[in-house]
Amino acid sequence: MEKLSFEYPASDEKPKRAHVGVVGSGDLEILLEPSQDAKAHVTVQTSVSGFAETWKAVLDRFFANYQGATIFDIRDCGATPGTVAMRLQQAVEVSRQ
Amino acid sequence: MTTTVQLSEDVLALSTRRSYIEMNARARAAQLLDAGAFRELLGPFDRVESPWLPMQGIVPQWDDGCVVAKGTIDGVPAVAIALEGKFQGGSIGEVCGMKMAIALALARQDCERGIPTRAVLSLESGGVRLQEANIGELVIAEIYAELIALRKYVPVIVVIAGMTGCFGGMSLAAGLASYVVMTRQARLSMNGPEVIEQEAGIEELDARDRPLIWSICGGAQRHATGLADMLVEDDVAEIAHAVRTLFKRGQPARLRSDAHDLYIERLGRLDPAQEWTADQIRAVCKEQMP
């Protein structure tokens, strides 16, 4: 198991909170909540160690298009980068409903 | 030329059906309660999770795999408890088990105060969480005690839909329920097939033989042998309707757990040295039942 954290600049858009996914094989759980500052904070707790670079690449790409001031709490159970990207999109969609 | 396509009733049923099995625990709990009445207690944002899993290098989940929601069923106050079979096999750890036990206790306290509160449990569980062994067993004992206390006031209904199934400690919880609703895809058994294969050898039971496994502990067999009260399709509306029908029926004539003499007699008729087919077991049960 490994814990990672990332930070990205954000606008002052404060999204509503959202919860998606499950900590099941090949999947992940995401809690999305508004942050107090103009930043996006991401913490990842993953069952698979040694993929910090891959996480950074997936998150860099996601935050290139998303500027919400948010806290993303991610619990991962071996999801592929594709699944992670889709769950991130889903969390944002739910937060806008 | 125009052609009219005639769809068979089976095909039409499939296209209008909404799968309950494909829903996660939260969506299931919401579907069991009246529309719009869902209010989750200790949800993921409350961040009450297992303290024991991370110590063992396992990623926990924010709701510990158990969704507890208050609401109504046909306008009557109700609590829905749903286990998430995809997180750690729906296993019962300290937090998840205590959420169940306390929810049942609160429902019982409401009943004692003259507010009948129904309880419906959607169980998908491999049993106790081995990483939290003793604490898990203790909370399962609490769940049993609360189930027995609550079912005196209101029927307690267990829904087993699949695909995880209901095994170990939670299979006994199903045995304590007033009514059990199952789908064909669901399984209900004390020991899961993998455990039996591991302990007794593949000659005893091949856990990969799916037709065999389902003929032993699948929903259709459990219903035919009286261990489940209703057999339903994997359909949200049908499952919600079954639950409401059973609550309307009120208390069962005899609780399954009070019928131990019946089951002891049944075991006496089944010689373990002989190999029994599903149909033979059904025949013995039918013969024995009044």
Could you walk me through the main structural features you see in this protein, from its secondary elements to its overall organization?
The complex is a heterodimer of chains A (about 100) and B (about 290). With about 100 residues, chain A is α+β, with helices and mostly antiparallel strands. Chain A is built from two helices and five strands. In chain A, strands 1-4-5-3-2 form a five-stranded mixed β-sheet, covered by helices on one side. Chain B is about 40% helix and about 15% strand. The termini of chain B are far apart. Chain B has helices at about 10-15, 25-30, 50-55, 95-110, 135-150, 170-175, 195-200, 210-215, 220-225, 235-250, 260-270, 280-290; strands at about 40, 65-75, 75-85, 120, 155-160, 165, 180-185, 190, 230. Chain B is built from twelve helices and nine strands. In chain B, helix 5 (about 135-150) links the parallel strand 4 (about 120) and strand 5 (about 155-160). Chain B is α/β, with parallel strands linked by helices.
CATH topology of chain A: Ribosomal Protein S5, domain 2
CATH class of the largest domain in chain B: Alpha Beta
Profile the largest sheet of chain B.
Answer: 7 strands, mixed
Provide the spatial order of strands within the biggest beta sheet of chain B: 1-2-3-4-5-7-9
Shape of chain A: globular
Order of helices and strands of chain A: EEEEHEH
The rounded Rg of chain A comes to 12 Å
Distance between the termini of chain A: 33 Å
How does CATH name the architecture of the largest domain in chain B? Alpha-Beta Complex
**What class, by secondary structure content of chain B?**
alpha/beta
Largest sheet of chain A: 5 strands, mixed
Query: Low-confidence runs of chain B (pLDDT<50, min 5 residues)?
Result: none
Query: What is the assigned CATH homologous superfamily of the largest domain in chain B?
Result: 2-enoyl-CoA Hydratase, Chain A, domain 1
